[in-house]
Amino acid sequence: MLDEKTMAILKIRAKLLDAARCWFNQNDYVEVQGPTTIPAVGDRPGSFEVKYFDKKAYLAQGLQPYAAAFVASLGKIYTIAPTFRAEKLSDRRHLTEYWRIEVAQQGELNAIIRCEEELVAHVCHSLSKEPAEMFRHFNRSTMDLAKVQSPFPKLTCDQVIDMLQKDGFNVSWGQKLDWELENHVSLKFDQPFFITKFPVGVDTFFHKSDPERPELTLSADLLAPEGYGELGSCAQRITEKKVISKKMAEENVDPADQKWYMNFMEHRAFPQSGFAIGLERLIQWICKLAHIKEATAFPRLPDEI
Amino acid sequence: MLDEKTMAILKIRAKLLDAARCWFNQNDYVEVQGPTTIPAVGDRPGSFEVKYFDKKAYLAQGLQPYAAAFVASLGKIYTIAPTFRAEKLSDRRHLTEYWRIEVAQQGELNAIIRCEEELVAHVCHSLSKEPAEMFRHFNRSTMDLAKVQSPFPKLTCDQVIDMLQKDGFNVSWGQKLDWELENHVSLKFDQPFFITKFPVGVDTFFHKSDPERPELTLSADLLAPEGYGELGSCAQRITEKKVISKKMAEENVDPADQKWYMNFMEHRAFPQSGFAIGLERLIQWICKLAHIKEATAFPRLPDEI
Fold it and tell me: Which of these, A122, A135, A112, A94, lies nearest to A11 by C-alpha position?
């Protein structure tokens, strides 16, 4: 028997998904499902390996590169599907198996940011209309959720570095913001917010460069406030085959390993953007859960299966 | 770019899922997600093996045994999730990766059959209200779908054997109905129908025996008409720990391999039933597709990944 708190979380989880799908329907997004088992082209560190008959395959970490084909054919699309991360992280924010809400569409970074904030605000507002009883196990009131307002605050990565330096952190431009830094910024907010335009090279392999400042990418992370940190990330994708070939050379990526990805470049004749939100991350923040594993009934962790 | 026919199928797929979830909402089913990576206890023939850090794991073939815990806690539940079958079948009806619609609830076989037929009828009726244009690539009219009526016809396995013997097939009681036999029966119907009460031992390990005829199980397969065959199966589960222990002994199953399953038996103090429908099977029939791989954008087959 699952305990009462878990039951409450699972009911909130179901309501949250329902609210998200309702928003997608109202806004003409088509639901799709990409493959979960994907071909092995080179090694994929961070991905689980599957014995696929006599071949090696991996478990997908997202809809890429299939998203490009879906968008070219169907326009605005979304998927809600399990996702797998083979990283031995023993913090309170990572599961090896989680569900992601992923969106892709034609258009530029601003449009996908707008989509992401409207979706999250809609979900919060829907949940705020549930009986307060539903949140009695959590340090969260429906009033908090009703107060979430789109558009969300936005800081550029430059502004975040300035802020952290002023607060005494030893941080320099171009470095990845680790959990401690993210947490410090996140505590300054009481609703979700974005950090935008990460420098090239910070987990941004397929992200388009900012035409005005090529050292930056057209990317944004969505962060939960109150110390909960990253919920998801969004970006405008590179659409030119030769740009991605050049980046491969610069970043020492073997083109042979990315052939599979390159095959989908033909679908990228127009600006294309996407985002992914971790469902359990969103639940962790909404219910103020100490550990992300509480956000699902049968969590998968490096040492727990 | 996906071709026009594929795009039409993907739109029908999205509408179908939306209609199914709408029915679940109206009938107070709670959406849940079970784990996709499951522990290895003994070998699981037919399941894909995953390298889970230094352990071996498998990809789930369904919500069992977790369904029991969900039902004990939440009542009527459903999940729509990817499912994996590591079988080298090269027919037109099997994918190695497919999405299943799975339901579990307290109650007996008749109630779960009723749920399954009402769900499928609702989905067909919803799709029948879409513009006829949506089906222009397929030999299917919205009128056909509007005519699907619940309750569906029901034949016992005994009646099916009689029917097949009368039609000249060399088939005997207790044997598994293979594709050719299923197909023959399926061609006699113009809407989905059930075959009920399969004999003990025909893929029925966790199915409860019929108290009135212990050689039969409380199980039913849902079949599509017009030669499309099995869409899914439903059954009342065994709820007594000692009954399942006895079955293990009779069927030479090693109890050590099933410890994981047995741990969930504590949740089975009441009658419990469930069904699963293959989403792509349902689409294959609705759109009259020659091969099931057409029902998904990026199909996975034994030789295709």
Answer: A135
